[in-house]
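Q: I'm building a small set of examples for a reading group on sequence design. Run inverse folding on the following structure and report the sequence directly after it, with nothing in between.
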């Protein structure tokens, strides 16, 4: 397997390895009492393109910011952007040295909110969960700082996630090329209006890899003379 193959077809062993690395880093924060894996990794249905879905329990926002500070030291971010429905530091986290397919979708919740998610599910869907850490928490030391996303950060993060989702669907044979092309156009549009700021990571880094993936897939289509909408897995 050459470098280009690694870019398009990451090893299926990568997502669980990243999940364990995230849990190990978060465990270094005394305010973290629970780290729970859910999604395809928890259900055992993941593949090499799967992202990593993690819920982390802290007693409050101060503990969450302390935990994300430790995670950033252990696994520096290429990009860390917000979710639509949860405040920072919850968000999508792309670690340096890992495939752009492998975002860590990390949510910080109180123990009560965590229990509600496990009981009620998300958007009407039952959550299959697997605990990587469960212990008594200590009070936060108040280390770390909060912040609000800069203008355009959510839109860029969502566009990056949507572009990766479209590429995954195409590679799995579950989505068409038109969706990949459309989502890449949307990502480029959001990137043009995004403030460049070191604190949130380096958007050009993840953007360049998304472009490389898109060009590789496009060249594969041209080389095979493909005119069909669907893609195919490794």
């Amino acid at each position: 397997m050459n470098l280009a193959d690694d870019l398009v077809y990451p090893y299926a062993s990568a997502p669980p390895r990243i999940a364990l690395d995230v849990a190990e880093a978060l465990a270094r924060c005394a305010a973290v009492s629970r780290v729970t894996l859910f999604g395809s990794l928890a259900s055992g249905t993941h593949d090499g393109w799967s992202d990593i879905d993690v819920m982390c329990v802290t007693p409050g926002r101060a503990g969450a910011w302390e935990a994300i500070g430790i995670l950033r030291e252990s696994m520096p971010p290429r990009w860390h952007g917000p979710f639509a429905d949860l405040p920072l530091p919850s968000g999508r986290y792309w670690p340096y040295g890992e495939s752009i397919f492998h975002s860590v979708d990390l949510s910080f919740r109180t123990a009560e909110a965590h229990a509600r998610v496990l009981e009620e599910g998300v958007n009407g869907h039952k959550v299959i969960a697997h605990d990587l850490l469960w212990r008594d928490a200590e009070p936060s030391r108040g280390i770390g700082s909060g912040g609000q996303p800069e203008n355009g950060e959510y839109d860029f993060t969502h566009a990056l996630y949507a572009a990766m989702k479209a590429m995954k669907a195409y590679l799995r044979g579950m989505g068409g090329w038109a969706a990949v092309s459309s989502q890449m156009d949307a990502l480029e549009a959001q990137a043009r209006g995004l403030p460049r700021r070191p604190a949130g990571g380096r958007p050009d880094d993840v953007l360049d890899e998304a472009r490389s993936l898109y060009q590789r897939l496009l060249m594969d289509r041209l080389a095979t003379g493909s005119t069909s909408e669907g893609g195919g897995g490794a």
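The domain at 9-134 is CATH 3.30.460.10 (Beta Polymerase; domain 2).
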